[in-house]
Amino acid sequence: MDPQTISIEDVKLPPGFCFAPTHTELIRHYLIKKILNRPLPSTAIMEYIDFNDIDPDQLPISDQFLAYYRGKEGYGFTQVVEGRTTRSGGHWKASGPEVPVMDGDEVIGFKTHFVYYSAGEEKCTHWTMLEYRVNPGLIATDSTNIDSTLVICKVQYKDDTENLSSDSDSSKKNENKMDSNNQTISIAELPPGYHFKPTDPEVIHEFLIKKILNLPIRNTAIKDIAFYDFDPELLPIANRKEEAYFFTQVVAGPRTTKSGGHWKASGRDESIMRGDEVSLDEVIGFKTFFVFYSAGEKKTSNWTMHEYRVNPGLFPAESTNETLKSKIDTFVICKVHKEDDDDSSNDETTFSPSQLDQSEETMDNETATSSRFQSDQSETSKSDDQS
């Protein structure tokens, strides 16, 4: 292994972190370097997988790699071929035109969204793919040993009926990896593409319960703050295109800020399952979805929040003193996010197959939504360059 490359087989990630690269990171830090035969930041992207030859359910997306992603997905370098038809007769079909990937004001590459159809089937499967290619103008024409047909494919299985089990499964894989004898890499040493995106079980098990019990927490990604005192615009969020997490304490009554704004619950509490071999169906916590209303406004703002709290039933009553009981009742974690008018989901692969298998008019709408990622990635890439 090149000394500049982090091998995912040889390290453990800090709790809550996974390989979740932005479009810009994939092209700037992985695809361009691979094309130019330069050392890669990490081995998270599989080497030369023939995505266009093998049915997606036959791809070598092993637990080794799943432990660093979220859900059933995988990244791989591959060669572009015409038709994108597998040996079995299945094929990948584009669901819209290419969309530029921006790094600041520069077009560094392009991405295309595909859905997979099994041989002889008229309805798409649950498999989706993003194919990334570099802007040819960035690669010197006189460079030798350059493979201009090389792309990165991100393949993901997205089930309409998937629920919390996917988060639990990913959390279990991460915990299994964390139990190995490998040394945990520090947050400062993480290469490009790794971000803090904990699963719901990780939020409860790795952070909230440990906070309540005064146990050591292995990273400082979640800060303490009087969350409900401040309008979300005033919160110390480094990158407003990403979710931010905070420890805080709740008080009885409405969640009103000092300025008079308030958070309003939307929907019912959701149970969070432990989801591992110890107790698959054990409820370890709950989360509630909130939307923010600025002072005097009747219309919701673009700020949303999930509030996580622990299941009090995890703590035996006979061993719970008043201090611990107060922490159980009041300590929460808030995950806050600003959904800008031009902000879609962080990744097109969150589209469900039912959304993709519909009329061309609807596809055009999705494509228009996808194109708005340009501004997201521009902002993200500026943060990447500064970090």
Automatic annotation (TrEMBL):
<feature type="domain" description="NAC">
    <location>
        <begin position="13"/>
        <end position="158"/>
    </location>
</feature>
<dbReference type="Pfam" id="PF02365">
    <property type="entry name" value="NAM"/>
</dbReference>
<keyword id="KW-0238">DNA-binding</keyword>
<feature type="domain" description="NAC">
    <location>
        <begin position="190"/>
        <end position="339"/>
    </location>
</feature>
<dbReference type="GO" id="GO:0006355">
    <property type="term" value="P:regulation of DNA-templated transcription"/>
</dbReference>
<protein>
    <recommendedName>
        <fullName>NAC domain-containing protein</fullName>
    </recommendedName>
</protein>
<feature type="compositionally biased region" description="Basic and acidic residues">
    <location>
        <begin position="169"/>
        <end position="178"/>
    </location>
</feature>
<dbReference type="GO" id="GO:0003677">
    <property type="term" value="F:DNA binding"/>
</dbReference>
<dbReference type="InterPro" id="IPR036093">
    <property type="entry name" value="NAC_dom_sf"/>
</dbReference>
<keyword id="KW-0539">Nucleus</keyword>
<keyword id="KW-0805">Transcription regulation</keyword>
<feature type="region of interest" description="Disordered">
    <location>
        <begin position="161"/>
        <end position="184"/>
    </location>
</feature>
<keyword id="KW-0804">Transcription</keyword>
<feature type="compositionally biased region" description="Polar residues">
    <location>
        <begin position="365"/>
        <end position="378"/>
    </location>
</feature>
<feature type="region of interest" description="Disordered">
    <location>
        <begin position="339"/>
        <end position="387"/>
    </location>
</feature>
<dbReference type="InterPro" id="IPR003441">
    <property type="entry name" value="NAC-dom"/>
</dbReference>
